[in-house]
Specification:
alpha+beta, 4 helices, 7 strands, elongated
Length: about 170
């Protein structure tokens, strides 16, 4: 029974570790994961995807490149560049699924970066984990995993460590 418990807890711990790496490790390399919340870039980036955005010099962006930019302090959008105004240092952007260009030009200062890849579906998890309820659940899961990792040792010694079992053999 202890072996089954150990295997199951190791599998769950491995899954949690992989998800944590996908969500947190990119920051080490200057990459920002962002959840796709609208369908304006379908089919390139599906709703619920997690896109990984790397900083880029606005001068290196070309027409046709997807670009992530700030539209407010806490809101970012990823759309495709359809025109560049080098004189005013702005981009005209448009979502792939949209019929018209965005209403406002994007200044070079508002450019966050370019998406380098995406993982479909992981954005739902990232968005939920960043909510208050999600954070509480994540912290609870971490505490539960720590408790489960040490539970076998807290329950008692294994059969081979038990002196009475050694004498019976």
């Amino acid at each position: 029974m202890k072996k089954i418990y150990t295997i199951a807890s190791n599998i769950v711990l491995g899954i949690v570790a992989v998800i944590a790496l996908l969500l947190l490790a990119p920051y080490i390399f200057g990459i920002t994961p962002l959840a796709v919340l609208s369908g304006s870039m379908e089919p390139t980036y599906h709703v619920g995807s997690l896109i990984y955005v790397k900083a880029v010099d606005p001068a290196d962006i070309e027409i046709g490149d997807p670009v992530t930019f700030k539209i407010s302090e806490n809101t970012m959008v990823t759309h495709r560049v359809v025109a560049i105004d080098e004189q005013n240092n702005t981009f005209e952007t448009k979502g792939d699924a949209n019929n018209t260009s965005d209403g406002n030009a994007v200044t070079y200062d508002n450019v966050v970066g370019e998406p380098i890849f995406s993982i479909p579906g992981l954005g739902y998890l990232a968005a939920y984990a960043s909510s208050t309820t999600g954070r509480i659940i994540v912290i609870t899961l971490i505490i539960a995993m720590l408790i489960l990792a040490f539970l076998p040792d807290m329950i008692g010694p294994s059969e081979k460590d038990d002196p009475e079992n050694q004498m019976k053999k």
